[in-house]
Amino acid sequence: MADVIYELVATEAAVDKLGRRGIAAKEAERLPRNRHVILPNVRGPEGPRHQPLERRVVIGRTDGGRSLTLVVEQTVAPETWLIITGWESTDAERKIIQ
């Protein structure tokens, strides 16, 4: 089954990380409403006993047209994900959503 994200929630730590990169948490939380793709997080950390955490990379556009890349982690509610970190998308990442 494909991943579906209806809601993104930023933790305090994520708000700080995003803020240092000039990204408002509300801007990032609205990403699923716009054009986006969800990819496996191949470079992410592993959980206990080297089990991969349920993390994904979301690349998408904000309401204002800005391209962002977010690392998100699934919660117990399958369509709600926590924002771990994010940045302004690179040129290569922007090409993925075109």
Summary of the model, kept short:
The protein is α+β, with helices and mostly antiparallel strands and 98 residues long.
Comma- or semicolon-separated keywords:
34% strand; single chain; 21% helix; 98 residues; YaeB-like fold; alpha+beta; 5-stranded mixed sheet
Shape: globular
Count, helices: 3
In which range does the helix fraction lie?
10-25%
Termini gap: 23 Å
State the secondary-structure class. alpha+beta
Could you explain how this protein is built, in words?
This protein is of the alpha+beta class and 98 residues long. The chain has a single domain, classed as 2-Layer Sandwich (YaeB-like fold). The protein is 21% helix and 34% strand. Strands 1-5-4-3-2 form a five-stranded mixed β-sheet. 23% of the residues are buried.
Write the topology of this structure.
Blueprint: E1 7-10, H1 12-20, H2 25-29, E2 36-40, E3 55-61, E4 67-74, E5 80-88, H3 91-97
